[in-house]
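Project outcomes to date are best conveyed with an example. Our students and postdoctoral researchers have been running inverse folding experiments weekly, and each run begins with a structure described purely in tokens. The record below, which covers 208 residues, was selected by the lab manager from last quarter's runs and is presented without edits.
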């Protein structure tokens, strides 16, 4: 299954806080039956060469691989993560024009994100990496059930608690793409702990 062939932006009005309405979608082949973990981070980079599916030298992949290394898992490519049953995507599909992301832009991307996560029937865990991913996932859950999954409380206060969406475990955590992740040692430690707890929740060794 090639992910990009199943997803498209249907938004007619432009988002005012992205660089250009040009969604960056994973242009990769994925065995949907193998994916047990969907990890959602914030937004794609301005330079497509930095996107985590652009190769092992891409900046986003380097920060992702560092996060897994901190948690005790060595990954040399995104294919390694896919082989482990882990799929990585972004909540916002276009590169940001500025630091923050508006509520409207987040909502505009929900249709794509919902279709994307629904592609994987065997998912057992959702990893929400950062506030934008948490907010987007809460919008999806609230539209379906009337309730958010993750409380509107600082992540460090709630990340040890257990949350579920349609019977699947949901972990709130921190952004792992970008330079800030590499220098924020306290968040790196918490992310590593969150990933280890994810490993304890579901087998991600590529042997489903």
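After processing, the design step wrote out the following sequence:
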């Amino acid at each position: 299954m090639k992910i990009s062939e199943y997803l498209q932006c249907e938004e007619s009005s432009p988002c005012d806080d992205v660089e250009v309405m040009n969604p960056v979608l994973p242009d990769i082949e994925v065995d949907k039956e193998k994916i047990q973990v969907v990890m959602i981070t914030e937004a794609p980079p301005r330079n497509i060469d930095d996107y985590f599916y652009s190769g092992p030298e891409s900046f986003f992949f380097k920060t992702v691989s560092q996060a897994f290394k901190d948690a005790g898992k060595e990954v040399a490519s995104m294919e390694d993560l896919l082989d482990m049953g882990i799929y990585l995507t972004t909540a916002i599909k276009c590169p940001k024009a500025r630091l923050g992301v508006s509520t409207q832009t987040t909502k505009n991307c929900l249709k794509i994100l919902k279709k994307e996560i629904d592609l994987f029937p065997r998912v057992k865990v959702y990893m929400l990496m950062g506030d934008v991913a948490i907010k987007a996932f809460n919008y999806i859950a609230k539209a379906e059930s009337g309730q958010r999954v993750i409380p509107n409380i600082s992540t460090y206060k709630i990340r040890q608690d257990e949350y579920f969406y349609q019977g699947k475990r949901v972990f709130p955590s921190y952004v792992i793409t970008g330079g800030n992740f590499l220098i924020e040692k306290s968040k790196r430690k918490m992310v590593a702990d969150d990933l280890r707890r994810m490993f304890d929740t579901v087998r991600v060794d590529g042997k489903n």
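The beta strands are 37-41, 86-90, 125-129, 163-165, 168-173. The mean pLDDT is 89. The training component of this project remains on track.
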